[in-house]
Structure formats: C-alpha cells, structure tokens
Write a structure and sequence with these properties.
359 residues; 7% strand; mainly alpha
Length: 359
C-alpha cells in the first residue's frame, strides 16, 4: 500500500506522517473501533500512507551513503516465556490465570508506549556536528514519536494496541476473569535504580533519548517472538475459543509494529554515522562509539534479566492460580519440564560486526 513517493523526498509534515490509507472498512474489536483498516480485504496499518515511504526514503539515503543499519541478530532474541507448549499445557489443565495475566500485562505495557511522545529531543543543530536535515532524526519530534504513541495506546475514540491485545485475549480465552492484582504486581518492582551516566560528556537530554530509543527498539524486536507465540497459542483450536479472530488481531498488531522497528533503526543508524558534540559545546564523540556502547549494554541487560523475571513470575502465578498445593507443585513441575531453555550468547560472541547490516 506504499504510495509512489519520489525517493529523493526527505521532508514530511506532521500531518503527512499521520495520514491514513483510504480504508474501505475499519477494524472493530470488542465493540471498539481501532486504528487501521481493510483495503481489498487485507488489513493495512494506521498512519502509513506517507510514514512508510518516508522511512523507506531515509533508509535508502543511508544505503547510498554506505552507512550500515543497526540490527539485533536472532541468536540474541530470547524466546517468549512461557513458551507455546508451556502455555498450552496450562490452558489444557484449566490453569488459565497465568496466561490471562501474561496477555493482560502485554496490553498494559502497550498502553505505556504512549510515553514515547514525552521523550525530550535534543537540539540536534547544537549537539550533532553534521546536518540532520532530511533524516528520520529530524522528524522524531514532528511526527514519528507521536505516531508511535498513538499506535500503542490509541488516540481519542480510536483504540490502539492496548485495546487490540485485550480483544485478542478475550477472543481466545473467552473473556477470562482478569486477576485483580495484575496492575499492582506489574508496578511493584520497587523504585527505579539511580541511573549512572554512560556518557557524561553528552547532554543528559541526548543520552536519555538514546537510552529510550534503544530500549524501545530492543523491546519491539523481541516482540516478534511474542507475536508468533500469541498467534500460535490463541490460534490453536484445541485451547482457543475463537482461534481465527484472536490470531488475526495479533497479526494486525504485528504488522503495526514494523514501522516502529524501522524508524528507530534508521534514526539510531543515522546518529551512529555522525559526530556528537558534548555538553560543553566543544568536545566531540564518535556517534558509532556511543551508539554501539549503549546498544550492547542495553541488549545484554534486557536479554538476560527479562527472561529470568518471566520465569519467576510464571511460577508464582501457577501457585497463586491453583489452590491445591500438591496439584500446584505438580503443575509447576510439568510446566518447567516443557521449558525449552535459553541463555544469552557468550560475551566473546557479542562482536559489533554481527550487530550491523547493510542498509
């Protein structure tokens, strides 16, 4: 559905980045009109009429300049936990609450995605030596962050991924009872640790933006495995109440996430190809050194901590959902035996050349 936009066009207005394709039918889930729609019977993501070709053009500009794109190799992506076999086993045992909780947490976190519009963008003219005109970077605060926020949390009377995940959960699990403490437990991780500056030479605003964008890119990349897990599980007629609709909604969300990964990848790769100016206005840092350092650190941390947290949470959920302690222990043991196992690749394998690819 990408419009025929000249590849040399690099500047786009806010309204253009918000523009939809000419949908013939809206997506409606749980009686809520959501974003996106259908053309010739195929779902088309929202705000893509010009956002898609814009990202394509910025990526092409990187390619012409022979600048590589940041990427996350598949071996660094942890599998969803619980995996498909584990989740299906729980549903077949009638232990629905842990799966309900997992899907509900995904929906809540999607709603938090609206916070990306609050990211403070630095003054690129003062903090980047080279021009950023006609780049994805130049459009972060003038449409890209806002489009991303609306995709995740919805906008006005239009539902977004939060509502779509809830609809997929309700369709597949037949409107399950939502645990009363799901939000409380999600928010009970304690106060955030004080963050130590990685690059104190940079302005705090620049470093904060880089950390946020890197984290979101990693999360969005990891989400591809979650989409595959949810489509397979909620699309399984042996455990899903409405496998066709539930899997379709998840597939729609997965399509919507593609431009998120794409624009974040392009913008961070653009910054990687430039020279950053320190907060003192005089010192300079290699964009490649900074981006690579942030990327490696955040990737390793998120790929090791998150799976462990998911394991601990799943065990607690099983014991909370099954009142009989002996049966809870038995279910938990069987559940663990279905764990496929995964560890982050050895530190020596984490070389930069595998974190880049041609644009």
């Amino acid at each position: 559905m990408t419009q025929d936009v000249a590849t040399d066009r690099q500047e786009f207005s806010f309204d253009e980045l918000m523009a939809d394709d000419p949908f013939e039918k809206s997506l409606v889930t749980n009686d809520i009109q959501c974003h996106g729609g259908y053309i010739d019977g195929e779902y088309v993501s929202p705000r893509g009429a010009l956002r898609r070709p814009a990202i394509r053009n910025w990526r092409e500009r990187l390619s012409v300049a022979d600048h590589p794109l940041i990427t996350i190799p598949e071996k660094y992506v942890p599998p969803n936990y619980p995996n498909y076999d584990q989740a299906k086993y729980l549903l077949q045992e009638g232990v629905v609450e842990p799966v309900t909780r997992a899907l509900t947490i995904i929906a809540i976190v999607e709603g938090f995605g609206a916070r990306i519009r609050e990211v403070s963008v630095p003054d690129f003219d003062a903090e980047v030596e080279e021009s950023v005109d006609g780049t994805a970077l130049a459009h972060l605060a003038s449409g890209l962050f806002e489009a991303h926020a609306r995709d995740e949390a919805g906008h006005r009377d239009q539902g977004g991924h939060k509502q779509m995940w809830e609809a997929a959960r309700d369709a597949g699990l037949d409107k399950p009872e939502i645990p009363d403490d799901v939000l409380l437990r999600l928010m009970s991780g304690g106060p955030p640790a004080t963050r130590k500056r990685l690059y104190p030479e940079l302005s705090e605003r620049m470093e904060s933006m880089l950390l946020m964008m890197t984290n979101v890119l990693i999360i969005e990349t990891f989400a591809e495995d979650t989409f595959n897990w949810a489509k397979k599980l909620l699309g399984d007629p042996e455990v899903s109440a409405d496998p066709v609709q539930a899997a379709h909604i998840v597939d729609c969300i997965a399509r919507d996430e593609v431009p998120h990964v794409d624009y974040l990848t392009v913008a961070l790769s653009e910054l990687r190809a430039r020279t950053l100016i320190g907060a003192d206005g005089q010192s300079t840092l290699s964009g490649a050194d900074v981006i690579d350092g942030v990327f490696r650190r955040q990737l390793r941390g998120m790929a090791t901590v998150r799976p462990q947290q998911s394991r601990e949470r799943s065990q607690a959920d099983i014991h909370q959902a099954v009142s009989d302690k002996r049966r809870a222990s038995s279910v938990a043991r069987q559940f663990e035996e279905l764990d496929s196992g995964w560890t982050f690749p050895h530190r020596d394998d984490e070389e930069l050349d595998v974190l880049l690819k041609s644009a």
